[in-house]
Amino acid sequence: MSNPGDPQRSQQDRGYYGAGWSQPAPPAPPYGAPQAGPYGAPQAGGSYAPPRPPRAPADPRRAFAPGASVTNTAGALIAVVSIVLVEFVSGLIGLLGASLVVHPFSSYGTGNSLIGGFVSGVFAAPFPFYAGAFLALAFLTPIARRSPLPTVLLRAVLAGAAGTIALALVGVFTGSVGAVRYGGARLVIDIVTTPLQNGVPFTLMLLATSTAAWLWLGRPRGGHRAPGSPGTPGTVRPADAVPPATVQPAPQPRAPQPPVPPHGVQQPPSDPWGGPAPR
């Protein structure tokens, strides 16, 4: 029977975790295996992935700046929705004028009504241009606030070209169906002439609406800065300013004072012989 006070016996009873359990210690990892360091990072001997360098900011003067952000989406919405509003007001004025002669819901020509022509001319037919221009402005050629105006206009032209190409792609399907009944000329009209007829004026309007969106988001200002912004007077301490002391001076030793005699004891005079005799 072992002695309860034996230190070896108590160490065995404590176990690896020191709580009275006799679990064996975990086995050591084999040589060369990666060992987990602090925060889960592998130590020396294992595979280590170096941290990625910070991404360089995009050049605001480039024509293409791929990326998505809330600011890019807002600029694209302002530019494209403005074109839709212009087309809506223009089509509504034409609808009101034509309704004075023809009933808005009566069919005419090929069987379309004024309301149907209004919806088709304002929303359905130019929708591929709206979608293509919006995607280009939101993800490829954004209306960035840091970009100068010539770059913004160039990006608007590229977005208009993307919308025109979207109209041509849709014209491939509609022209293929129309070519069966009207011949190959319908295919040329839907792929070339109609997309250019609608894309050119839409691109010109996109130049104006992109400029308005650029001004709305906040164009870069040259020499004028808001008060309190970095680099303005009052935000940077002058170079010759004396910094505050960071080391406290050491306390000066006090001069020793003479002991105070107890109560009732007469203190002897400091100069018992008196001062020097007058000459």
UniProtKB/TrEMBL annotation:
Biased composition regions of type Pro residues, renumbered to the chain = 250-262, 269-279
Membrane-crossing segments per the record: 76-102, 114-140, 152-179, 199-217
Q: Which UniProt keywords apply?
A: Membrane, Transmembrane, Transmembrane helix
Superkingdom of the source species: Bacteria
Chain residue ranges for the region called Disordered: 1-64, 222-279
- Bias (Polar residues): 1-10
Stretches of Low complexity bias are at 33-49, 238-249
Full protein name: ECF transporter S component
Q: Which organism is it from?
A: Curtobacterium pusillum
| Lineage summary | Bacteria, Bacillati, Actinomycetota, Actinomycetes, Micrococcales
